[in-house]
Design goal:
Blueprint (H helix, E strand, L loop, with lengths): L2 H23 L4 H8 L9 H19 L21 H17 L3 H6 L6 H20 L1
Helix pairs in contact: 2-4
């Protein structure tokens, strides 16, 4: 198999593993996510283990992968170069947080939850796609 054929397969497998991890970790349950975000009420700390696992995996994984000269299926790494905070970034982060807190879904778990489509999930996905469209129009 050529690199051009392996790249989408690797992407699919990575997405499948990510979605499985979200489901097993409870991130696809909006009630659990909202309980985790409710610090002043009935706080549910169980997602702290998911967060901790993600931080440790990312910390170790980036150091391991970036020792290579290039990724397996591309000519170079595509790393962000900007480090400044502007109104677009802060506004987008605020909208993301508000949407996550109101719905209990962020984009990854929302897509991983498509098999159990409900009205709140459909509303969140519609708002997410609308936000992408609006950002492209205003950007």
């Amino acid at each position: 198999m050529t690199s051009a054929m392996l790249k989408p397969i690797a992407g699919y497998l990575a997405g499948l593993l990510f979605g499985l991890g979200l489901a097993l970790g409870g991130m696809t349950d909006p009630a659990r996510v909202i309980g985790f975000l409710d610090l002043a009420g009935a706080w549910d700390p169980t997602l702290m283990f998911v967060l901790g696992g993600a931080v440790v995996t990312t910390f170790v994984g980036y150091r391991w992968v970036l020792r290579r000269r290039a990724p397996l299926f591309a000519g170079a790494f595509q790393l962000p170069t900007r480090r400044d905070l502007d109104a677009k970034l802060l506004g987008g982060a605020a909208l993301f947080g508000i949407g996550w807190g109101l719905s209990g879904y962020c984009p990854g778990p929302a897509v991983a939850s498509l098999s159990g489509l409900s009205l709140p999930l459909a509303a969140m996905l519609t708002a997410m796609v609308g936000g992408w469209w609006l950002a492209r129009r205003l950007g």
